[in-house]
Amino acid sequence: MSVSLKTTYLGLELDSPLMASSSPLGRTIEGLHRLAEAGASAVVLPSLFEEQIEHDTYQMHEALEYGAETYAEHAGGFLPEFEAYNTGPERYIDLVAKAREELSIPVIASLNGITTGGWVEHARRLEQAGASALELNVYFIAADADQTGAEVEQRYLDLVAAVRETIEIPLAVKVGPYFSSTANMARRLTEAGADGLVLFNRFYQPDIDLTELEVVPNVVLSTSAELRLPLRWIAILKGRVDASLAATTGVHTSEDVLKLLLAGADVTMMASALLRHGPEWIGTVADGVRQWMVEHEYVSVEQLKGSMSQASAPDPAAFERANYMESLITYAAPEV
Fold first, then answer.
1. 12-14 and 18-20: which strand pairing?
2. Bridge partners, residue 49, by sequence
3. pLDDT tens digits, one per residue of 182-222
4. Is 164 helix (H, G, I), strand (E, B) or coil?
5. Residue 141's CB: how many other CB atoms inside 10 A?
6. CB 269 within 8 A of CB 21
7. Of 9, 60, 145, 244, which has the fewest CB atoms closer than 10 Å, so is most exposed?
């Protein structure tokens, strides 16, 4: 029995739901070739940061709150000196163009920013360089006690709308889960122009060095245990928002991928798993997905996708409060 892993994300036809998300593996054309050859159906490039683009006009990095702004794409966690990190917008755009020319899979550029401004115009340049789509990675710590939740949400929406006005290629928005009403915010993001939602951004947390008495970066790769947050929200949002749904954070095994597809994800994105095992891990995960589908008589990803979402599940309440109560009741403490 043959099975089809084909899926659609942001209107892009993909050979499988196994994408490589933004990570150091995609910083070079050689790394991108390796990901493609390993079986990634599409690649998201490491982010081009708002601060990189505007570095020549103001020293944003000096003003960032120390310990508040850390980025998933950085092995060191904290934003480093730009002289060490910054390859510059021009080199990033060249990487997009070269990757689009040499790879046979979609190449998704990534912009990381938190304000509207002139830097948004680089979205158009990435489109002109050949990006198949753009992922807007909004990494914002709402640390200002004078800023209301409504103001924070509007900041997101204004940014999405500004980028949407700038480009015609598909736009995905990668956000964190920390909204007072995640479902409502998801709908408003799509209304502002998002064609897809990437759930969720993984905010790294700083630590304290007790010897040096310094705040230090603390980068820990994700585990499958972190899968449950995007799993729940993808299951809830499936069919309720007019957007593609991508799952990221905690995607490590074929079991993880299958659960997310059943919940309603169009694609699953891996970074930590590939950093831990190498790009070739994609093939191992794909084999596991195929084997499970054969054993359970699914002929395609499209057939199983969303069949266990909240809208389709026999017990929709399992994704909400009822599951919380049942978990407490059924928990069995380990024997001492």
1. unpaired
2. 112
3. 999 999 999 999 999 999 998 778 899 999 999 988 888 99
4. helix
5. 15
6. yes
7. 145
For residue 113, the SS3 value is coil
Domains of the chain: 7-307 (3.20.20.70)
CB 34 within 8 A of CB 99: no
Q: What whole-number distance in Å separates Cα of residue 251 and Cα of residue 269? A: 7
Residue partners of 197: CB distance under 8 A and separation at least 6: 172, 173, 174, 175, 186, 189, 190, 237, 241, 243, 244, 245, 246
Instruction: Provide the token pair at 78.
Output: 């904290």
Contacts from 156-162 at CB under 8 Å and sequence distance 24+?
156/185, 156/189, 157/188, 157/189, 157/192, 158/116, 159/113, 159/114, 159/115, 159/116, 159/120, 160/136, 160/189, 160/192, 160/193, 160/194, 161/192, 161/193, 162/116, 162/120
Beta pairing class for 133-137 and 207-209: unpaired
Paired tokens of 266: 């169009």
- C-alpha 264/C-alpha 316 separation (Å) is 14
State how far the Cα of 235 lies from the Cα of 223, in Å rounded to an integer.
20
Asked, as a colleague might, if the bond just before 179 is cis with ω within 30 of 0, I would say no
**Exposed e or buried b for every residue in 58-72, given b needs 16+ CB within 10 A?**
eebbeeeeebebbbb
Q: What is the pLDDT of residue 331?
A: 59
E-only strand ranges, 85-230: 107-112, 133-137, 171-175, 196-199, 207-209, 214-216
CA-to-CA distance for 50 and 231, rounded, in angstroms? 30
- Contact of 192 with 203, CB cutoff 8 Å: no
259-309 pLDDT tens trace: 999 999 999 999 999 999 999 999 999 999 999 999 999 999 999 999 999
pTM across the whole model? 0.85
